[in-house]
From TrEMBL:
Keyword check for Zinc-finger: no
Family affiliation: Belongs to the protein kinase superfamily. NEK Ser/Thr protein kinase family. NIMA subfamily.
Key words of the record: ATP-binding, Kinase, Nucleotide-binding, Transferase
Matches recorded under PANTHER family: SERINE/THREONINE-PROTEIN KINASE NEK, SERINE_THREONINE-PROTEIN KINASE NEK2
Gene Ontology terms, MF aspect: ATP binding; protein serine/threonine kinase activity
Segments forming domain Protein kinase: 12-292
Recorded GO CC terms: cytoplasm; mitotic spindle pole body; nucleus
GO BP annotation list: chromosome segregation
Residue positions binding ATP: 41
Name of the molecule in the record: non-specific serine/threonine protein kinase
Compositional bias ranges of the Low complexity kind: 438-450
Length: 524
């Protein structure tokens, strides 16, 4: 599939077939992006002759350059080379053509009102003005005494104007379409002849006589179309082609019913003048007072229509904005609900965590009370390497045969092998009277003798030794190190620590230390 002019067949949904031709059909299609409906002409060019292919290429070229409110708009084409088919995407006019309108009037035995006829007459003349002069007609307020000179670009002759090629777009609006037999004059002053072109009932005398013809041949076909809308029959009718040609050359046709105004009847007869020189141009028709009046009315209706289209577009845009606003509100509501749910989840998690913390704290309290009921005070279990609290005396309890360095000044809290775990229980033990006496003796000894620094703390056979500190009177208690529940305990020699430096607060006051100082003598 080869697409051109921005048209891709895959972007359209196929609908029903609305017409047939000698080389294909016309189908309704809907564009998926916006739902707009088009008329697609599917033309099979494989069996076409070279002349017909050139004619098709000419139609595509003409349509791509014609832009007018009363000409069926061309949107693009695509070529399916595998199936030898070309697709022309045209504007869709959903109310049929004037041929179907005439048939309805015949079946219902009704007539078309004159105001509708004048409106259609004016619209078709404006479309032919655009084709013949290469520009839009001037406004109805501007008087033009002579027809303008066409631009040097192109002049388009339709050559097949008839009710079946005029499409209805609403109740009173029509559009000229089907430029399949159109020709382009590169030189506006040049004329050309064609032996047989168009529909026989609407061919002009110069075509039948094989004479050169110009844009006035389209005016003849326009007069035939307006006559048929008034009488519901073509102006020239015959059983054979020679008889039809004779009537066309003579300009013999039945009169238009008198229920229509003389101005309308005279205008149609003017368009059906046999001599092309006596036939009007599109610019001449637009100078008629009735044309000017209906053009003014048509311009007002066109303005109202344009305003209506703009209003509809604004309403669609407003609806789109409201839809987006509602969508944003829904998203905001969803985010708010998620925020509320997240807050509730966080609050529930915090409550569960607090409950777990309280449970663990209570369990810790119970374990502390059950493990040290003799002390009368709760204990704290530390899972990391630590040193006893400052307000503690030194009491080591070890129920394993290990060697503990009694030189506490050299003890390092980091001197443990990787992977080892030690549990240290620090508790507050009631002060005994003998400890106070030992403290006083130690104080006296210290005052009379030179301080001796102990080298090693020896563990008693019961693996327990109580150290009485001279600072016990200042509030120090006893610290117990319990390694009972820890297996594979190893106690290598600790590293040296500089314990002779003073332990002080930030404000300079000396702190009590759980370690033995150099000026302290421990008596056994």
């Amino acid at each position: 599939m080869e697409s051109s002019e921005g048209v891709n067949d895959l972007d359209y949904d196929l609908l029903e077939v609305i017409g047939h031709g000698s080389f294909g059909l016309i189908r309704k299609v809907r564009r998926r992006s916006d739902g707009m409906v088009f008329a697609r002409k599917e033309i099979h060019y494989k069996k076409m002759e070279e002349r017909e292919r050139k004619q098709l290429a000419s139609e595509v070229h003409i349509l791509s350059n014609l832009r007018h409110p009363h000409i069926v708009r061309y949107f693009g084409r695509s070529i399916d080379r595998a199936n030898h088919t070309i697709h022309l995407y045209m504007e869709f006019c959903g109310n049929g053509d004037l041929g179907s309108l005439i048939k309805e009037c015949q079946q219902e035995n009704s007539i078309i009102p004159e105001n509708i006829l004048w409106s259609i007459f004016v619209q078709l003349t404006l479309a032919l003005y655009r084709c013949h002069f290469g520009m839009d007609a001037p406004s109805s307020d501007i008087l033009v005494s002579s027809p303008p000179s066409p631009p040097s670009s192109v002049v388009v002759l339709h050559r097949d104007i008839k009710p079946d090629n005029i499409f209805r777009d609403g109740e009173i609006y029509v559009k000229l379409g089907d430029f399949g037999l159109s020709r382009i004059l590169d030189d506006p002053s040049r004329t050309f002849a064609q032996t047989y072109v168009g529909t026989p009932y609407y061919m002009s005398p110069e075509i039948i006589n094989h004479e050169p013809y110009t844009a006035k041949s389209d005016i003849w076909a326009l007069g035939c179309t307006m006559y048929e809308m008034c009488t519901k029959l073509p102006p020239f009718r015959a059983m054979t082609q020679p008889e039809l040609n004779h009537k066309i050359r003579r300009g013999i046709f039945p009169p238009i019913p008198g229920l229509y105004s003389m101005t309308l009847r005279d205008t149609i007869r003017w368009c059906l003048a046999v001599d092309p020189k006596r036939r009007p141009m599109a610019s001449d028709l637009l100078m008629i007072d009735m044309f000017r009046a209906y053009r003014k009315e048509l311009e007002i209706l066109e303005l109202r229509r344009e305003l209506k289209v703009r209003e509809n577009n604004l309403l669609k845009r407003e609806a789109s904005v409201l839809a987006k606003e509602e969508e944003l509100k829904n998203k905001e509501r969803i985010l708010y609900e998620k925020e509320i749910n997240l807050g509730k989840a966080i609050q529930a998690h915090v409550c569960r965590s607090q409950t777990e913390i309280d449970r663990l704290y209570s369990k810790t309290q119970e374990l502390g009370h059950s493990g040290e009921r003799t002390t009368g005070r709760p204990s704290t279990v530390l899972s990391t390497h630590t040193i006893a609290s400052l307000h503690c005396s030194s009491s080591v309890k070890d129920k394993r045969h290990v060697t503990i360095d009694n030189n506490l000044s050299k003890l390092s809290p980091t001197h443990f092998s990787p992977g080892e775990r030690r549990q240290i229980t620090i508790s507050s033990i009631p002060i005994r009277q003998p400890l106070q006496e030992n403290t006083s003796k130690l104080s006296n000894t210290t005052s009379n003798k030179t301080p001796v620094t102990p080298n090693r703390l020896r563990v008693s056979p019961s693996h327990r030794k109580t150290l009485d500190s001279p600072l016990h009177s200042q509030g120090l208690l006893r610290a117990e190190i319990n390694t009972e529940t820890i297996g594979n305990l190893r106690n290598p020699r600790p590293t040296v620590m500089e314990m002779w430096k003073k332990n002080v607060w930030e404000d300079g006051d000396e702190l009590p230390s759980p370690f033995l100082r150099k000026n302290v003598t421990i008596s056994n």
